[in-house]
Amino acid sequence: GLSSRSGTAQACGKISPLLLLPSRSNTLPWRWQPCRRVCSPGSAKDGSSSCPQSHLLAPVKQEQAKAEPVPDLNAKALYEDWDDIPPSSALEEISEEEAVQIIAEQIPPFQSSTLRDYVDHSDTLTRLVHLGVDLSQVEKRQKAGQLLLTLDFERDIKKILLFLKDVGVEDNQLGSFLTKNPYILAEDLEALETRVAYLQSKKFGKAEIAQMVSRAPYLLLFSVERLDNRLGFFKNELGLTVKKTKDLVIRLPRLLTGKLEPVKETLQVCQLEFGFQHHEIQQIVLKTPKILTASKRRLRETFDYLHNIMGIPHRMLTCFPQVFNSKLLRIKERHMFLKFLGRAQYDPAQPSYISLDQLVSLPNEVFCTEIAKASVQDFEKFLKTL
Fold first, then answer.
1. Which of 57, 274, 337, 366 could form a disulfide with 362 if both were Cys (CB 3.0 to 4.6 A apart)?
2. pTM above 0.85, yes or no
3. Is the pLDDT of residue 330 over 70?
4. What number of other Cβ atoms are within 10 A of residue 300's Cβ?
């Protein structure tokens, strides 16, 4: 029984598991001491202590040994403070009512293809969602999901958020910004500050830098050397002044983050295939920077229709380059309707002149009534005949 086991405990054998259970007051009913073998002097034939492994124990003063009596582990003392209820067994049956009250803590999946499965287990992901980050878009970006799972919000992310706010990114833009560029959360803060300082040294104002960073989220991932090379490329290729180069990248900051080869090809197409002069290309790009990132196939089709079908000269296209951003179908439909009405006149020297801006930018109601001098119903009927 218990009394027999207590003798074993006194001899430093195995301590009963019951000794480790707490009492009602959450303290042990006696002071538990590290196991120390109790040996009587002179038990050996030579009269010396015969405690095995005694060399492993620190020396104990005789007075202390007498002051620490071995506890009496009889059953009555053992249960007097435990409500007389022995510990339950892991194999003991419980009722259905008790079973449904047991709530097992969910563990994160070992592997998953979506960040949604980890949100309930990650304070970082939860706070990013509250910030407005779209995790379904983030996980489409290479290794971005794995990156977020390794970051701690307080340690890694908060300082980047404060930096972005200091740069000028609005609170309601942070979620969208991080959705597009989650990689900035792994960037060194000092490196980010150095890149902003570089832009400031190039005389970009605080509001201009805020606009550029917000519209081109990847901008601050570029080193100072790469940013400097990009600015130099547009200045030299287009023959622009420093001020005009700044104006260009402020209007379309993703020119600094996109590939440069497609830009070179577009400039060659404008010069060699379309026949624009260098100064005309300058004007076109400064008025409509997006032309540098437009599809070359679409540019070719639009130019061919405007110049070869409608007869628009280069100088007119230089004055209204916005026409290259318009849908070719809209240009065709409106030109054919005007031609059907006998009003397709694009020469400013002739009466009833219609500018390219009027042709493509006005809504249908205004175009029909003020430019074509017809009703919207007439225009819709005409389109059905095409």
1. 366
2. no
3. yes
4. 13
